[in-house]
Structure formats: structure tokens, C-alpha cells
Amino acid sequence: MGIFCEINLNTPEGGKFISGSVLSGEIKYAVDKNTVFKKITVSLKGIGTTSIEYNNSNKDEKKSTDHYTEKYVNIEQILLDKAKDDDGTTLKIGSYTAAFQFNIPNRIPPSVNIYRSDTNHTVRYKVNYYITIKFQRPGLISFPKRYKKDIQIVSNIIPTLSQTPVTLGEKKKLFHIFSRRDSVINLKATILNSVVRAGGNVQFLYELANHSNVKIKYVKMKIVEYIEFKKSRRSVSFYRDLDATETKTGSIQSGNTQQMTVEISVPDDALTIDSCKLAARDYYVYIVVALPLPHINFYLRMPIQVMLSTENVPPENPPSYWDVMCEDKDHEDD
Fold it and tell me: DSSP string of 228-274?
């Protein structure tokens, strides 16, 4: 039996389908001789897989690996069904076409292929979606013929973080052997919207008051990706700085205060993953204050969620700098 099959998709602009949208296309197939079929189906399938390899400190011991899977979508559309008829249906020599359409679920993770490694673990996490067509013939020893086409899906999230300005703070006390005076560095930041669009910008204001006896070397700001692999025999997680998101200021002398408005571009391929039992991917804005030795640097971490589009989020009018930054300062002067 010769079956020739082609899967054609109505691919959206950009080549990726969006969760919650409609996926449609057409199957073209042909047979080179009269052939009996019991069933012909086309399906949309999606599966996530995680492979976690545990690196042993003892080189003589074998590495152990855990494998986990999770199904996200399995929707079938029947093109031909004669399952109750052992004789099936005969398709004559020729070509055939059949249209199909699937509603992609909303709460599914995006297509990803992630590899992370450190001294203790090597992790591969993949989410794969595909269209498959299966030709089944009558008989117990007749094996189905399958054709498959991979697709890319990007998914949105339901925001849980604030979409209005949020202020966070951090304080660092420095110890000096020959001084009784308090040596404190105060950092306060306000992020204007914790829900941002992939390819958009995250905006925040910060004030750094150096009430210490040392000169701050610099202040560095960046977006950091955090991935946690949930199904594992012990906690497995990775932090990674996103490329081209780092910005840095100059030094701050003792007794001075630095006030800045900062805007960092979010990479196009950054997306929060919050609808998967295998893994979660989150993002944070870090403000790192670099101190001279022997003091230890400190940082302020602000969580953000990155989604496909924020067009349905009501726009907010950003407050003025002093509206959000100076209220506490007035109280300090009382």
C-alpha cells in the first residue's frame, strides 16, 4: 500500500499559533491502488518532557536520570470512521482532501526547548505541539500509517501581579570597627507595571541614599530569568541573566543620593510559564548595589510577569517621580 500525505496549515503571521485561537488547515492524501481503510483521523497533540540528570560527586558512580512527561492537548477529528465494520471503506486510486480545525486551549505552556546545566544537574525541558494524521486498515496485524507536522504555539497568561505602581525597599547596614555612627544604605524602587509585554519595556524609578562611610562602586540593573523544575527528587532551579538587559551607573560618594528613572527592553522570546506541572519560568528585575571589599553587595528584586500582549490591561498614568519616591522622605524628616 502506498499512501502519500501532505499537511497544510493556515499559519498566522509570524509562523506561530496563539493559545486560545483557532488552528485550521487541509490534509491532502493519495493512494496508488484501491485501499481499504477502517479509520482516518487527524489530531492536535501537545506534550511536555523533562529529563533531569543528577551528576554524582563520585566519578566512579553512574549518573542517574529521571524522566517526566505531561500531556497538554489531545484533540482528535475523524475524517473516516468504519470502526464497527470489519470490511472498512475502500478508497479508489486518486487524491483526496479534507479540511480540519481545532480550538487551541488557553491554559497551556508555550513551545520551548530549554537546556540548563550546572555542577549538580543537567536538565532538558521541551514542550512540543504537532498535527498528526493516522491511517488505520482492518485486521489485527495491520499497523497504522502516521504522518506528523510540528507546530509552534505561544501562550498568554492570566496576570497575578499588580498592574499599578508597586514600591519595594531594601536596607544595608555596614559594620565599621572604629566608628559608632550608623552606616546605612537605603534603596527604594517603584516599578510602574509588573505585567509587561514580550518585546516591550519595563519601567521603574529608584532612589539610593548612601548614608555610609564608603563609596558605592556602581549600581547595576538587569532582568533575570528563574526556572524551577517542579517534578524532581530534590529542588532543581536555575537563574540566568537575560542578554542585552543590563545597565549600569557610576559610583556614588558617601553622603550622596542617586535618583534615576530606568527603562529596560524585554526580549521578544521571554514569556512567563505558569500553566505547567513540570516547570515554571518567572522573571525579576534586579537592582544590584556594588560595594568595595570587605563588604558584600546587596540587591533588590522586583518580580515581573511577561505576556504576549497587554492590550487588554487598562492603561495607567505613571505618577510623577516625587509622588512615588518622596513620601517616605517627608516622614523621615519629622
Answer: EE-SSSS-EEEEEEPTT--EE---B-TT-EEEEEEEEEPPTT---B-
Q: Is the pLDDT of residue 307 over 50?
A: yes
Structural contact between residues 55 and 120, judged by C-beta atoms closer than 8 angstroms: yes
For residue 13, name the pLDDT band (cuts at 50, 70, 90). Answer: confident
**Digit-coded pLDDT (tens) for 308-323:** 875 544 444 444 444 4
Residues 100 and 225 in one domain: no
For cell 549518573, the residue is 63
Measure the N-to-C terminal CA separation of the chain; round to a whole number of Å: 89
Q: How many domains does the chain have?
A: 2
Domain that holds residue 64: 3-154
Q: Rounded to two decimals, what is the model's pTM?
A: 0.82
* Whole-number Å distance between alpha carbons of 248 and 246: 7
CATH number at residue 262: 2.60.40.640
Summarised one tens digit per residue, pLDDT across range 115-150 is 999 888 899 999 999 999 999 888 766 678 899 999
Rg of the chain over CA atoms, in angstroms?
Answer: 28
Which of helix, strand or coil describes residue 315? coil
Whether cis (ω within 30° of 0) applies to the bond prior to 294 is yes
Looking from the CA of 141 toward its CB, the CA atoms found within 13 Å total 0
Shared-domain flag, residues 242 and 173: yes
Question: In this structure, what DSSP letter does residue 195 have?
Answer: E
DSSP class per residue in 33-54: S-EEESEEEEEEEEEEEEEEEE
**Separation of alpha carbons 323 and 154, rounded Å:** 38
| pLDDT higher than threshold 70 for residue 190 | yes
Query: Which of these three, 134, 154, 174, is where a domain ends?
Result: 154
- Asked if the model's pLDDT at residue 84 lies above 60, the reply is no
**Both 148 and 52 in a single domain?**
yes
Largest CA distance in the chain: 97
